[in-house]
Structure formats: structure tokens, C-alpha cells
Specification:
By secondary structure, the protein is α+β, with helices and mostly antiparallel strands. The protein contains eleven helices and ten strands. A hairpin with a 4-residue loop joins strand 5 and strand 6. It is elongated, with a radius of gyration of 22 Å.
Amino acid sequence: MNTKEALAVLRDATTDEAKAVEFFESRRWPDAPACPRCGSMAVHKIVGKDGRREAHFRWRCPDCAKAGKPCQYSVRTGTVFEESRLPMRIWAHAYWRACASKKGVSALQIQRETGIGYRAALFMMNRIRFAMDDGAEAPKLSGTVEADEAYVGGKPRRRNNQQTSKHPGNTRAPVLAVVQRGGGVRVRAVTEVTSSNLQRFLFENVTPESRLMTDEARMYRYAGRMFKGGHETVDHHLYEYARGDVTTNTIEGFFSLLKRKVYGTHHAISREHLHRYVAEAAYLYNTRKLTDADRVACAVKASEGKRLRYSDSPSEAA
């Protein structure tokens, strides 16, 4: 299927419920439909007397029935959209907008485009962001990597101390990130930036043989000694931004996208939900070389085996 055909299928999925279900089924089970509970492929669609699929587009697994287990399921089972009352065409539209918008899409925009309530739109978008988070499953970065931190999310009390002030008026939250040149990025929202959590973040996401590039911040010095490829820095206080191939411009470029996403699209993000938004930004960056249709397909596949209940989100009204 070429790009135009894939986009046409995705476009149809946003307007017709049956086509939306077929779209999600084909992306979740590209080879053959399988039972999400036992993995059996000896499954069949439940159809009515007229030969059409029943209203909930369910499947039946004979193997689960023989074992005395629940034997009916749908494409929603075992995913982030399980037990959602929203039509699958709404989910298809939300996935498309989330994956096609370089700087993200707000829940209010989804509300305007689909006609659903704001709380439903916000929870749906947080479910999609949860699916985009690969967490500890992502392979470690290697080669030449750049690390840095940024402060995003709220509005500082004073302009000149927006990063270091601990005043209650400063609502910005710190974000750690490391990017492999020509490769992917790993991001994590933290409560504060310390030498210990910075070292832990780097060791969990970067191989020891890598070459580390950072700015002149002292917290990177100890962590830098642990990388066999060496640790080199640029001194931004001296207006040094590149010295040969020693630079942090790649990670700065990612943070510019993240900040434009926050300030231009969402305007403000609470600390409770920041980790979902940075996971979405990382997913869009890591899949930047894919087409929109392929990016949606990867996001749908990543939603399998994940579940986010309403009670798991700290404040859906944030």
C-alpha cells in the first residue's frame, strides 16, 4: 500500500465506524487476527443472520471457550481504548491528528473537531500519549549522544531566574533529555535536576561506550567520566556553541520543538501530566522519518497491552 492509499484508508476511518474498526484491526493484527488473551489465531468474526458483523464488531476465540475463559473480544480489548464509549472513528481521528501534528494537538481542538466533551477529549489524548510512551522497552542510545535539561510547563515568577528559583510562583518543571545524533531521543520529566537522577537517567538510556556531549554544567562531570567514548563540553557562558563536532545543537533543536509544543499548542501543562506530553514529543521525534500513515500504524500497534484508567490520571481537569 503506497502513501496515498494509506492516507485514503485513514481518511475513511475517521468518517465511517465499520471502516474505522477494520483500520484498527489491520494495524493491530497486520498478519492475521489473534486472540489478545491466548494468542490463538483460530478465531472468527461474530456475524448476524444477515451475514453482517454485530454492533460491537466482536470476535470469538474457540480455544478460550474450551478453557472456560471469556471467549469474546474486539479490537479494543487489551489496548488504551478498551471500554471506551467513544466511537472508533473518533479514535482514528484523534490518532491521526496526534501523529500528523509536529507540535501536537490540544484537547480543545479535538473537542471542536469531533463534538465530544472536553474531559473525554483530554482523557482520550492522554491515553494516546500513554500508548506512545515506550518506557523501558526502548533500546539504549549509542555513538555520539548529546544531553541537556530544560524547564517547561508553567510561568516563572521572575524572568531572570526561571530555571533555578524554588519560589512557589515558579511552576516550570524540569525535563531531562538525551539524543543520539542521527537517531532517537529519550526524555524524562523529573521533580528536580540533581547529579544523582541525571546520572541514573544517562546510564539507563545510553550505552557506556558512547561519546557524551553536554554544556558546562558541573552535574555532568561525574557522569561523563563513566563513558568510554569520552565527555566533551561547550561553554555557553562564553558564547561557545560549537567547536568542531562538539556541540549540543541537536538536543537544543529537540527542546525547541518541545517548548513550541507547550507554548504554541497547549500554552500551559501541569506537572502531573507533563510526562505524557514529553513522551508524545519523543515519539514524534523518533518517528520523524515515517509518513503520517505509518506513524499512526506504529502508535496503534504500541497501544497493545497498555491500559490507562480514568482513576490512574491525577487530574483530568488540569
